[in-house]
Amino acid sequence: MPHKKGELRWQKNYVMVIDEGTTGTRSLIFDKSLNIIASSYTEFTQYTPASDKVEHDAMEIYDKSIQMCRQAMEQASISSDDIACIGITNQRNTFVLWDKNTGLPIHHAIVWQDSRCGEMADRLASEQIGKDTFAATGKKLCTYQPVLPIRWLMDNVDGIESQVNSGDILFGTIDCWLIWKLTEGAVHAVASSNASSLGCYDLKEKKWYQPIFDHLKVPVSIFPEVLDDAADYGTTNLFGSPIPITGAIADQQSALFSENCHQAGSAKCTNGTGTFMDINIGTEVKLPPDGLDTLIAWTLNGVTYYCYEGMIAVTGSAVQWLRDGLQIINSSAETEEIAASVEDTNGVYFVPTLAGINCPEYDPFARGLIAGISRGATKAHLVRATLEGIAFSLADIMNVVKDRTGISVNNLQIDGGASKNNLLAQMIADYTQASVSRPNSVEATALGGAEMALIGAGLAKQEDFASVMDIDRTFTPQMDDEKRTKNYEGWERARKRAGKWLVE
Question: Is the peptide bond between 360 and the residue preceding it cis, with omega within 30 degrees of 0?
Answer without folding.
Answer: yes
